[in-house]
Specification:
The structure holds 2 protein chains of 2 kinds. Chain A is built from 2 helices and 8 strands; from the N terminus they run βββαββββαβ. By secondary structure, chain A is of the alpha+beta class. Chain A has one domain. Chain B has one domain: HUPs (Rossmann fold, 3-Layer(aba) Sandwich). In chain B, α2 links the parallel β2 and β3. Chains A and B meet through β6 of A and α3 of B.
C-alpha cells in the first residue's frame, strides 16, 4: 500500500506516501484500528493513533510516523496497511471508462 | 518596566522577536501554545530550551507558561471551514495571550510574524487576526526577510536550537486562506464556542521552569 517512506523536512518523523491514489474514511479507520491501537484523537480531517509509535493518518492516505527510526516507521506502515487493506475504510477513485 | 506576552513556538522567528524586545529593556512572559498531538514533544522541549537561552541573554528570569492548544485544533477541524484553520488557530492564540496579558499586567502581545512568510501572515490575515483583541500586537520582524531573521538567530545563538528536529503542525490545511474576510471567519466561529475554548485552555495552562527541562 505504501511505497515511499521519506523523512519529514524537520527530520522528526517519516512520511509514508500511498503507492496508488485512494482516500480514507477516518471514522471507519478508527473503528478498525481501535481494536489493536490506542486512538489518540479523531479530528475528522486527521486520525492520530498510537501503536509502535504515534501516527497521524490523513484522509488522502498519507501517514506521518513520529519516530526517528526508519525501520520502525516502515514496520508501522506495513502494520497499518495490513489492518486497513481490503476494508471499506479505503475508497479507491473510480476508474475512467474513457470518452463516451 | 514594560511587559509583553511573548508567543514562543520553538521555531526560528519568535525567539528573535523576543530577543529584540528584551534588548530594549522590555520584560516578557513567554507563552508556548502546545499543539500536541498535532506536533510532538520535541517542540515543547525546543521552546523551553529557547526560553532558557533567552534568560541567559537577558540576565533575568522569564516566566514561562504552556497552554494546551490541541483541543482547540480539534474543535476547528471538526466544525469549521478547513482552509480557515490557521486563522482560527491564531485568533485563538491572540485571545488566550490577551487574557494572560491582563493577568500578568502586560501591555501587549509579542510575536515573530513577518509579512508573507507563511500563508497566515498576509496583511489581510493579520488584520482579521488582530480584530479579536484590544491590546496591541508587537511584531518586531514584520518587515524582515528570512535571511535577515536567520542572521540574527545565528548571532544570538538561537538558530541551532530552533533547527533541532521537531514535527511541524500536521493539521495545517493543504491550501490555507491567504486573504480571509472577517465576515467569513465570524460566521464559521459561530459553529464553535471560542469563549468556552479559551476558558478550557486557561484551565489547562501551567507554568514551567525552563531550567528544569
Amino acid at each position: 500500500m505504501y511505497s515511499i517512506l521519506k523523512p519529514c523536512k524537520t527530520t522528526a518523523a517519516f512520511e509514508a506516501i500511498p503507492r496508488e491514489r485512494f482516500s480514507l474514511d477516518l471514522d471507519r479507520c478508527e473503528e478498525i484500528l481501535k481494536k489493536t491501537c490506542t486512538i489518540v484523537t479523531n479530528a475528522g480531517v486527521i486520525l492520530i493513533i498510537n501503536d509502535m509509535c504515534e501516527v497521524s493518518i490523513h484522509r488522502d492516505g498519507r501517514l506521518i510516523l513520529k519516530t526517528d527510526s526508519n525501520e520502525l516507521a516502515a514496520e508501522q506502515a506495513v502494520r497499518i496497511s495490513g489492518w486497513l487493506e481490503g476494508t471499506p475504510a479505503i475508497r479507491k477513485p473510480k476508474k475512467s471508462t474513457g470518452p463516451e | 518596566m514594560a511587559k509583553l506576552v511573548s508567543l514562543i513556538s520553538g521555531g526560528i522567528d519568535s525567539p528573535v522577536a523576543a530577543y529584540l524586545m528584551l534588548r530594549q529593556g522590555v520584560d516578557i512572559v513567554a507563552v508556548h501554545m502546545d499543539n500536541r498531538p498535532f506536533t510532538d514533544e520535541k517542540n515543547l522541549t525546543k521552546a523551553m530550551s529557547l526560553v532558557r537561552h533567552l534568560q541567559h541573554l537577558a540576565g533575568r528570569p522569564i516566566k514561562t507558561c504552556v497552554v494546551p492548544h490541541g483541543p482547540n485544533h480539534i474543535a476547528f477541524a471538526r466544525n469549521c471551514e478547513r482552509h480557515l484553520h490557521c486563522l482560527f488557530c491564531r485568533r485563538m492564540m491572540y485571545r488566550i495571550a490577551e487574557r494572560i496579558a491582563e493577568k500578568e499586567g502586560a501591555a501587549g502581545i509579542l510575536t515573530g510574524e513577518s509579512l508573507g512568510q507563511v500563508a497566515s501572515q498576509t496583511l489581510q490575515n493579520l488584520m482579521v487576526e488582530n480584530q479579536v483583541i484590544r491590546i496591541p500586537v508587537i511584531r518586531p520582524l514584520i518587515g524582515m526577510d528570512k535571511v535577515e531573521i536567520i542572521n540574527i538567530a545565528r548571532k544570538i545563538g538561537t538558530y541551532e536550537i530552533s533547527t533541532l528536529p521537531g514535527l511541524c503542525c500536521t493539521i495545517v490545511p493543504k491550501k490555507p486562506a491567504t486573504a480571509a474576510r472577517a465576515g467569513d471567519i465570524l460566521a464559521e466561529e459561530e459553529k464553535i464556542d471560542p469563549g468556552a475554548l479559551i476558558e478550557q485552555s486557561l484551565e489547562g495552562m501551567y507554568v514551567l521552569d525552563p531550567e528544569t527541562m
